[in-house]
Amino acid sequence: MNGTEFDLMEAVEVRPAARVEEAVKIYGLGATEVRALNHVSVEFPAERFTAIMGPSGSGKSTLLHCAAGLDSLTAGSAYLGDTELGSLPDRKLTLLRRERIGFVFQAFNLVPTLTVRENITLPLDLAGSRVDTDWLTTLIDVVGLGDRLAHRPTELSGGQQQRVAVARALVSRPEVVFADEPTGNLDSRSGAEVLGLLRRAVDEIRQSVVMVTHDPTAAGHADQVVFLADGKLVDTMQQPTADRVLDRMKEFDNRVATVGRRG
Ligand SMILES: Nc1ncnc2c1ncn2[C@@H]1O[C@H](COP(=O)(O)OP(=O)(O)OP(=O)(O)O)[C@@H](O)[C@H]1O
To answer: Domain ABC transporter: where (predicted)?
Structure first.
């Protein structure tokens, strides 16, 4: 292998699916100003599962929303692949979110009047795209909802509803799936099923996944964890385990407690 080929492989290896550079997000003005992101630069690698962790109010959801084009940065840049989100007019940003990103939210956000099947294919229907029936069959099989396709969301458990939401996020084979506390409303068993699905999506279909979570066990399913504190990126961890993530989070708690005692 010559040097150029090696360089190319290296470049492919580290290709980010999404990233932010020097991201600043300020909410409010003057006395009510909150600096939710304070010069954060982070890459979310393609075909990997990244968890975003940190204490409450550290800026996790803000980072996810700005990286996914749901909210805009005050300063700095957010990229999906090579596309800089801040330069896009609203209409193009809406299309980008619809066609290139999959979303999973804590509250499932399914359409109650649609069946399970219709909810899953909704992103394709909105985009006017053809449903790849082989892919749909595979997805339905993977999420284990084959016998529920004609049901409405209210006829499903929370865990089943979130599995529908994951299938919906994956159906258009987006460049990145962004998940905001996807297990926050689930018991531990349903949560583990949803995390297992996201893990399989990365391992088996090379999906890129970025997930905000409070839960060290959930973060233990990821390939890497990025830690935020006070709107800043303070650490990253490769190949995390729930125990290592928990220990890292305890360090934050201890620091807050120590600072609090000093104060
Ligand atoms: N729309 C908003 N208007 C004003 N302040 C906001 C808004 N959204 C978030 N904030 C503030 O920005 C900071 C970061 O919030 P963010 O929701 O990103 O944190 P988080 O780490 O996701 O918190 P949690 O774990 O509690 O969900 C917090 O101080 C929060 O109060």
So the answer is: 18-255
Total domains in the fold of the chain: 1
**Complex confidence, ipTM:** 0.98
E-state strands within the chain: 16-27, 34-45, 49-53, 75-80, 83-84, 101-105, 176-180, 209-212, 224-229, 232-238
In a domain, 2, yes or no: no
Q: Comparing 71-80, 107-116, 127-136, 193-202, which segment has the lowest mean pLDDT?
A: 127-136
Ligand 1 atom closest to 65 (CA) = 18
Write the pLDDT tens digit of every residue in 30-61: 889 999 999 999 999 999 999 999 999 999 99
pTM above 0.95, yes or no: no
Atom 7 of ligand 1, residue of closest alpha carbon = 27
Name the residue of 38, 53, 62 whose CB sits within 8 Å of the most ligand 1 atoms, as the mutation to test its pocket.
62
**For residue 84, what are the contacts with CB-CB under 8 A and spacing of at least 6?**
77, 78
Q: Verify whether ligand 1 is closer than 6 Å to residue 28 (CB atom).
A: yes
CATH code, domain carrying 142: 3.40.50.300
62 lines ligand 1 (CB under 6 A): yes
